[in-house]
Automatic annotation (TrEMBL), chains B, C:
<keyword id="KW-0963">Cytoplasm</keyword>
<dbReference type="InterPro" id="IPR036604">
    <property type="entry name" value="PurS-like_sf"/>
</dbReference>
<keyword id="KW-0067">ATP-binding</keyword>
<comment type="similarity">
    <text>Belongs to the PurS family.</text>
</comment>
<comment type="subunit">
    <text>Part of the FGAM synthase complex composed of 1 PurL, 1 PurQ and 2 PurS subunits.</text>
</comment>
<keyword id="KW-0658">Purine biosynthesis</keyword>
<keyword id="KW-0547">Nucleotide-binding</keyword>
<keyword id="KW-0436">Ligase</keyword>
<dbReference type="Pfam" id="PF02700">
    <property type="entry name" value="PurS"/>
</dbReference>
UniProtKB/TrEMBL annotation, chain D:
<protein>
    <recommendedName>
        <fullName>Phosphoribosylformylglycinamidine synthase subunit PurQ</fullName>
        <ecNumber>6.3.5.3</ecNumber>
        <ecNumber>3.5.1.2</ecNumber>
    </recommendedName>
</protein>
<dbReference type="InterPro" id="IPR010075">
    <property type="entry name" value="PRibForGlyAmidine_synth_PurQ"/>
</dbReference>
<keyword id="KW-0315">Glutamine amidotransferase</keyword>
<feature type="active site">
    <location>
        <position position="210"/>
    </location>
</feature>
<keyword id="KW-0378">Hydrolase</keyword>
<keyword id="KW-0067">ATP-binding</keyword>
<dbReference type="InterPro" id="IPR029062">
    <property type="entry name" value="Class_I_gatase-like"/>
</dbReference>
<keyword id="KW-0658">Purine biosynthesis</keyword>
<feature type="active site">
    <location>
        <position position="212"/>
    </location>
</feature>
Amino acid sequence: MTLDTVKHAEQTPDAEQPWAELGLKPDEYARIREILGRRPTGAELAMYSVMWSEHCSYKSSKVHLRQFGEKAPANDAMLVGIGENAGVVDVGQGYAVTFKVESHNHPSYVEPYQGAATGVGGIVRDILAMGARPVAVVDPLRFGAADHPDTKRVLPGVVAGIGGYGNCLGLPNIGGEVVFDACYQGNPLVNAGCIGVMKHEDIHLAKASGAGNKVILYGARTGGDGIGGVSVLASETFDDAKPAKRPAVQVGDPFQEKLLIECTLEIFAEKLVAGIQDLGGAGLSCATSELASAGSGGMRVELDTVPLRDSSLSPEEILMSESQERMCAIVEPDKADRFLEICEKWDVIATVIGEVTDGSQLEIFWHGEQIVDVPPRSVAHDGPVYERPYARPEWQDALQADDAAKLPRPATGDGLRAQVLQLVSSPNQASKAWVTDQYDRFVQGNTVLAQPEDSGMVRIDPDTNLGVAIATDGNGRYAKLDPYTGAQLALAESYRNVAATGARPLAVSDCLNFGSPEDPAVMWQFAEATRGLADGCLALGTPVTGGNVSLYNQTGDTAIHPTPVVAVLGVIDDVSRRTPVAFAEEGQLIYLLGDTKEELGGSAWSQVVHGHLGGLPPKVDLEREKLLAEILISASRDGMVDAAHDLSDGGLIQALAESCLRGGKGARIVVPDGLDPFVFLFSESAGRAIVAVPRSEEVRFNDMCGARGLPAARIGVIDGTDITVQDQFTLPLAELREAHESTIPSLLT
Amino acid sequence: MARVVVDVMLKPEILDPQGQAVHRALPRLGFEGIADVRQGKRFELEVEGPLDDAALARIHEMAETFLANTVIEDFTVRVDS
Amino acid sequence: MARVVVDVMLKPEILDPQGQAVHRALPRLGFEGIADVRQGKRFELEVEGPLDDAALARIHEMAETFLANTVIEDFTVRVDS
Amino acid sequence: MTATSSTAAGPTGLGNARIGVVTFPGTLDDRDTQRAIRLAGGEAVELWHRDKDLKQVDAVVLAGGFSYGDYLRAGAISRFSPVMEMIIEGARQGLPVLGICNGFQILTESHLLPGAMLRNNHLHFICRDQRLRVENADTAWTNSYEAGQEISIPLKNIDGRYVADERTLDELEAEGRVAFRYLGMNPNGSLRDIAGITNAAGNVVGLMPHPEHAVEPLIGTGRTDGLGFFTSVLKQLVSA
Ligand SMILES: Nc1ncnc2c1ncn2[C@@H]1O[C@H](COP(=O)(O)OP(=O)(O)O)[C@@H](O)[C@H]1O
Ligand SMILES: [Mg+2]
């Protein structure tokens, strides 16, 4: 067997290399040769190919993502911005919060349980690597048509995987989304987000500095996971027959991850690490090159010291392995023993695999022979950047011209009633309890609000009641009609959801799910959505702190709807002031805040009743969103509202139904003067919410809205056990509940 | 009635956290000398009618498409006697 | 190295919802003629050293005290050949 | 995020009682259980699975979670830890021991309580607010309740189906050792709707639902029905 050492590479400049099989373009391969001044070794080629992939290098999206920095609003809360494992914001009282959303779409289609489970595992390690204790997870999910047979395979598996992993880690699941649309049939979206909490002084960064510091790999043994492509290298470099089989799917071990969390937190508490990085995509290649390039010196790694699960792995494969539940820490020599001791306490395997050098190169050795000698930055950060061509698709105009206003509407109260039932029982609008009851929302004993509340909320300090809230939203239908506006609507909705619970929106993370960047139409959608999101964040004063891009989400030539998912993080000084969704007190007054216009493009009604997608999505007015949020937050702080629910897909009637069902109380509603009952019930105008105002607070609440210029219309009162829309229809709660709650179970069981 | 057993095991290259946890616990319980443990599933099927080649072929297909997830698992079918 | 297989099945009187779920799904998938399905666990142990009576006795004890919970489960130990 | 509040004497003034909370690898609800003990007025003492002494605690809680990932069977691996040897010994001599969820599973695996826990009959993890009836209010952990009292506390597990043979079940019923029963829908197929049981002496109690998640009005379900478990044992320790 010949090892492709650096020396060997120098001596055999013309050796054929499988760069194309590894996904590199000719010019990319040429650039690697230029950087190194020779041909890369097999191990180097493996590292470059994976680190320069779309997934790791963001080569197609980078030029657009820059706007998040360029247009970032001035924000004192931002402690760590884009570029680290996750952003960090100041939430007061010395606490910092880190949060991020990531995708695990493709693996979840192949093996739903494990794909989703390892998706949770990955995002939790990102949060942990910042120095934080993970305190909650969220899971925005999208599946194909609810009644498609494959959805019965994918959805239960994904949900069981997210629950199986997150529940076992002891992380409350406090929010997320479940959306069905045929466009996700062959390509479900499994996004997962995590929040972590730490004190300011505990923030850790991924950097390797200080010559002589130890590089410690700890956690699971390294197996042949996720190295598909690189096996071609193994077969190139090894004379003996085919390499052993490599797993097509990664299996998560949540127990191992739980140990990793507790062990790492104990290590943080004793201040034993100088730098730390989780191992995710691209495994050791990514961790070592990122740590080294962020530090001041170089790094030397003895690859044969890496503990293996499969002894047949080649050095290239070890470098590329994406085995789960591993972390890499930089530790001062005199702290290494204590570090290893804590790992031993938690039954976590830990190995010194190298050290930081005063050189500038990342050098990797295999049984004493050098197989990698690269400038780490060239691997981690100097990947290719594409200015992919983009063009507004020619079908966009026709789509927007196909206005939902022309769709037939019910003319009678009975007709409205029937469509209300149809709406609230449709898969997208129906109760998601079948899914969310499989998630532990109570663990850690700090959950103040969880699904189906507008945002999840956890207490982070039991003494002061300081808390944080998070909501995630995205609407691919809106974004398909207009990606710029669609991205802003996702942001606005998430922002509104956080404010509705009484928390002040602070910062944003996103997961941008799109089709192939090689399709100019998709690239246009991506460019428009990122521009919309960046402009929106600037207007709302909530910076993007980090996120994730998932491209190539398509089946054959058909891309998914452009689906930017936006997570907004908020802070609340005293969680006892949180506002729930439930209408629970008879006699309280129901107010509709904001303006209702006739906006049905992309609406749930157009989808459910007519199977239609066309026209323009609702307009966005971010100044109005800010005002609405201020009113909701003030009203919560001053005890003027006992319940609030934002209006989004499904419009007023959907929100009203949810608040009534949650509280177990009915409502008597009057259609405001000048509004058509149908538009009043089904329009999806943004910037709106309904609130329950105790009678004693009505004057004060009205004065506040009046003084600040927010339209507030009294539309009814909490009462009885029916929802009655005066002169139109009456719907018993029991009938509504049956419609709302039976859909998902009957589709999936 | 005939009994057919389908054994489903994770493929050797796939991580088996359960088997590992069992393996790691053994020394603590005083059991030495076990080099590895893998944990899988065993299905016992009671088959109506004659257990001819056609029936076995059907069970094989059932194992392949349903009882095992061949992305990560291998299986064997055998008649229990 | 010798391989010993320990099969662990729920006692017949204990409800096996996993087996039942499999059984119920079969007709939908087009598989008829299966009267019952039970699902259990299979452990494959790689044993170091000679597989003599003493070793087998130890494995039997391991199965009885650890691999199976004899309140609810039966087990069998056999050498894989 | 450690709760540092009220470690001293709590509302009931029973602060001298030391209650151990065991952490196994994979235990999740240990910190919440410690908090619940402090809220009830006791002193929470951390016990580690490798500990070979019980640090002079007056009672022990085996907290919920997924010890050893629940691999093999829930509770099967934890049962063999050094700390369990001490606890099994102590329990036989009257030490109050409460097993919550995974802790209950460990107690059955240890044969401190009869029967076994199996996968829920619907095969899913289930997280819900669960109504229970306290059937036996004479144990170390239930004396703050009235027999027949209904409480609501969170249930969250995938291996929550209690089974035992008929003879054992009859015996449990006859001796009043069914401590809690599910009300409304049986959430997992547990035989005779059993949610929790006690040993004959009443010092060892196990149940699947989580009282420690129902001790503060703001958090979780918003109810405090679970606090009584912890005040019960404190009361019993003072009067002992
Ligand atoms: N859509 C996005 N919006 C903002 N930041 C992003 C986005 N996508 C990626 N980033 C940032 O780019 C950096 C690299 O992303 P990623 O490779 O996902 O991180 P990791 O290596 O931790 O998985 C991170 O700081 C991430 O937050
Ligand atoms: Mg990372």
